[in-house]
Structures are given as C-alpha cells and as structure tokens.
C-alpha cells in the first residue's frame, strides 16, 4: 500500500474559491505586465530592431501568466474541520496550511477595487506566528462575511477552553 499524500486530509470537504478570482488576477497581470510591454514596444518601434527582444519577452510572459492563472485559482481551496481550518494552494508547488482555531488572533476581510467590482473578497487569518500564510482569496462577499464570523466565534471558543 502506498503512503498517503501529505496533502490528503481525512474528513476534509474542500470548498473552492470563486471563479471570479480568475479575471481579477488576469486584469492585475495585464496591468502589471501590459504597461511595460506597451512601453517597450513603443520604444522598440522608434529605435533599433534588436530592442524588440524586450517586448517579445514581456508578451510571452504575459501570455503564460494569463494561461497559468486559471489553473492556480482552481487549485485554491479551504476546509473547515472541528478544530482547525485547512487551506490548500498551488499546482506545481503545493502547500497545505493548517490553522488551529485556538491559535487565531483575529480575522481580516479585504478587497481591492477590482475584486470589489466582481463581488469577491479575501479572508486573512492572523496568528501569533509571523510566518503563517493563512489567506483565502476569491470568496464571494457573503461567504467571506460568514467565514469571518464563523472563524472568530470558533477562535474565541477554542481560546476560552485553554
């Protein structure tokens, strides 16, 4: 019998994030890479032909990121267990974050302007550890509110039991 994957958790029912996160991340990538692409293309047009290497590299990188984002978003999920919250991310480089409810200090909900226009938000968990990367992006606003309230209540209940 083969050993179980460290990313398999018994009893976990994984919840996906909203598909609306895909265009939000693609728009951000298009802004971040598109502006330098356009600037380098204009510069290359008015200068030497070898300068076209920069817009070509940026264009290929932009296309690759636009292709990769949907796969990354589909790989994000979370599961609420009795004593902890599980968050998984990653396609090639996978990660599983386990946050015990009793270790949570506070829970944030935030959203940038593009995410707000799409009706999604991010839930960020804060623990005593500065290294915890416990965030769930791309939740519908109602689910983000529910999860914030649920996690806060569970965190207070588990902390009170210590």
Biggest sheet strand line-up: 1-2-3-4
Oligomeric description of these chains:
single chain
Net shape = elongated
Over all CA atoms, what is the radius of gyration? 20 Å
Number of helices: 4
Helix fraction bin: 40-55%
DSSP, total strands: 7
Uncertain runs are none
How are the SSEs ordered, and which strands pair?
Blueprint: E1 15-16, H1 21-46, H2 53-74, E2 77-80, E3 84-89, E4 95-100, E5 104-110, H3 113-118, E6 120-127, E7 135-140, H4 141-160
Note down, in words, how this protein is organized:
The chain has 162 residues and is of the alpha+beta class. The chain has two domains: 21-72; 77-160, PH-domain like, CATH 2.30.29. It has four helices and seven strands, in the order βααββββαββα. It has helices at residues 21-46, 53-74, 113-118, 141-160; strands at 15-16, 77-80, 84-89, 95-100, 104-110, 120-127, 135-140. It has a four-stranded antiparallel sheet with strand order 1-2-3-4. It has a three-stranded antiparallel sheet with strand order 5-6-7. α1 runs antiparallel to α2. The longest helix has 26 residues, at 21-46. The chain is elongated.
Describe the structure concisely for a colleague.
The protein is an alpha+beta fold.
Descriptive key words:
three-stranded antiparallel beta sheet; 162 residues; PH-domain like; 2 domains; alpha+beta
